[in-house]
Amino acid sequence: MTELPPPVPKLDVRQLLDAVNRRTGAGLEFVGRAADGEVGAAFVRWPDGRDGVLTRGSGGIDELRRTAEALAAARARGLPVPEYQLLADVGDAVGVAQERLPGRPPQRVDRTLLEAMIAMADRFAGVAPEVPVPSMYLLESGPGFCLHESLERYDDRTRKLLGWIHEVGRAEPGGMTGDDLVHLDFHPGNVLVDDAGVITGIVDWDGIGRGDRHFGLVTLRFSAHVGLPGADLAWFDELLRTVLEPDVLRLYWAHMALRQVDWSIRHHTAADVTHWLEFAVPIP
């Protein structure tokens, strides 16, 4: 097999914490490693006792400042999103210390949770943050994800999928439009809930954009395929067809197919690659 692109490295949270403290004098204390997530994060505590979460930001310091401003605007609208408390450029990365929101990751994924997340996404309407419209990366590789090279080099099935992705990328619409707040990785692992199952937080805003909030529903549908194996999700598919025009749904579906298959090729098993290929094709 032709050599594949490398996986995204796991975050060395201790190293990042030390670099942030040296750079800023923040005095953050390591509390523990966050268990969820593909790349990694750490729970930290400020000298005044506030709890926070430390992550490695995606993009440069200016991009992350725009993210912080967008989240501030969302909080002003009553959305349960974290405050970015500190941004620290430490040379090879930007450390992001953000508010630790109340609640915990949901222990169970079910229709009730999915419907609550769908309702939450509607609250993103018209927030229009000062951040770029995200690319779907259908004609060129993304920055560390949505890599075309993975699909091109893996096997005939992935090359066929990549050919279809290119066709969608050359068609109209060519990208996302709208003035909503967009969470680019909207799945149950990125929400927090209280003991009653009410959503108390939406986290992991490294993927943020301005555009169409309904994109998050396609991300959520892909996640539901894993979180609810064998469940009847025809209602969710019908919802997507109701809120999205066919060509827009195809655009978003192509992006998610590219994202999931590429990530599985580089980070998971051959069985995972087959799993996502079987789900992503046929295309809705």
From TrEMBL:
<dbReference type="Pfam" id="PF01636">
    <property type="entry name" value="APH"/>
</dbReference>
<protein>
    <recommendedName>
        <fullName>Aminoglycoside phosphotransferase domain-containing protein</fullName>
    </recommendedName>
</protein>
<dbReference type="InterPro" id="IPR051678">
    <property type="entry name" value="AGP_Transferase"/>
</dbReference>
<feature type="domain" description="Aminoglycoside phosphotransferase">
    <location>
        <begin position="43"/>
        <end position="221"/>
    </location>
</feature>
<dbReference type="InterPro" id="IPR011009">
    <property type="entry name" value="Kinase-like_dom_sf"/>
</dbReference>
<dbReference type="InterPro" id="IPR002575">
    <property type="entry name" value="Aminoglycoside_PTrfase"/>
</dbReference>
